[in-house]
Design goal:
The chain is an alpha/beta fold and 243 residues long. Helix content is 37%, strand content 23%. It folds into two domains: 3-90 and 166-242, Rossmann fold (3-Layer(aba) Sandwich); 94-161, Alpha-Beta Plaits (2-Layer Sandwich). It has helices spanning 3-7, 38-46, 60-67, 97-111, 133-147, 168-176, 192-203, 220-225, 232-242; strands at residues 12-16, 51-55, 72-75, 80-83, 86-89, 115-117, 122-125, 150-154, 157-161, 181-186, 207-214, 228-231. Helix 4 runs antiparallel to helix 5 (133-147) and helix 6 (168-176) runs parallel beside helix 7 (192-203). The termini are close together.
């Protein structure tokens, strides 16, 4: 499936998620790190392929810290990006920053250190406190109605985002542009829009490969749609090494 990418890297894109794909899932979200050697591997791929990128719900500053800026980085599901070393925000996102600030303050007053304020979005994590999952969800629904922000489910967490039309699928299509081949690796429901984008690209003749990364939390719907399934971040990194 990956031979068309290897045969013509100058016309191909290699795109991947971060958490659960390049990094093992951890109890403490602040402790997530890419597997050893991942940064060097991605930088080597970036020297061969037209586009090599990481698309994540993490802030782009965090991705740059962990992976450098030699790659195309998209954080907060595409709300902010680093392209050719320059940081840019999605159109229309900045005007929602004040509402994100207020929502994060409200959440922090209630949930304390479980809140991650990402600048242009915010997350309340409950992996270490599963007993408050419904309380967190109820708060998020109320805050969505009050603020007009968009509510998204994520791994053992809920997120509030500006309601702009940008997701992982948008990032994929922009990154691929007029290239001939692409693969994307992901492990969660947040990666389904990227799979949707690969289906659209495939329909117009792009060689598109959807790679599902099986973890304890990977949804069946994502794995069922994948062209190839690998076992955890170790399996994902092995696939990248074959490129």
């Amino acid at each position: 499936m990956l031979e068309p990418l290897r045969d013509d890297p100058a016309r191909s894109a290699v795109l991947t998620d971060f958490d659960g794909t390049l990094s093992p899932i951890v109890e403490d979200w602040t402790a997530a790190r890419p597997l050893p050697g991942v940064r060097d591997l991605l930088e080597a791929l970036a020297r061969r392929y037209a586009v090599v990128g990481v698309i994540s719900g993490r802030p782009v500053a965090y991705l740059a810290e962990q992976l450098g800026t030699a790659l195309r980085l998209a954080g907060l599901y595409g709300l902010e990006s680093v392209i050719d070393g320059q940081r840019v925000a999605a159109e229309g996102a900045e005007e929602w920053r004040e509402r994100i600030d207020r929502a994060a303050e409200s959440a922090t007053n209630r949930f304390g250190s479980l809140v991650e304020h990402k600048g242009l979005s915010m997350t309340v994590h409950f992996r270490t406190r599963p007993e408050i999952a419904e309380e967190v969800a109820a708060w998020a629904r109320r805050e969505q109605r009050r603020s007009g922000l968009e509510l998204r489910a994520a791994k053992a967490s809920v997120e509030l985002h500006p309601p702009v039309t940008f997701d992982k699928g948008t990032v994929v299509e922009v990154a691929v542009g007029t290239l001939d081949a692409v693969c994307f690796l992901g492990d969660d429901v947040g990666d389904l829009p990227a799979f949707d984008a690969l289906d659209r690209l495939g329909a117009r003749g792009v060689h598109a490969v959807k790679i599902g990364v099986r973890t304890s939390e990977a949804p069946t719907v994502l794995l069922d749609r994948a062209d190839l399934v690998v076992e955890g971040p170790v399996g994902a990194v092995e696939v990248l090494r074959t490129l």
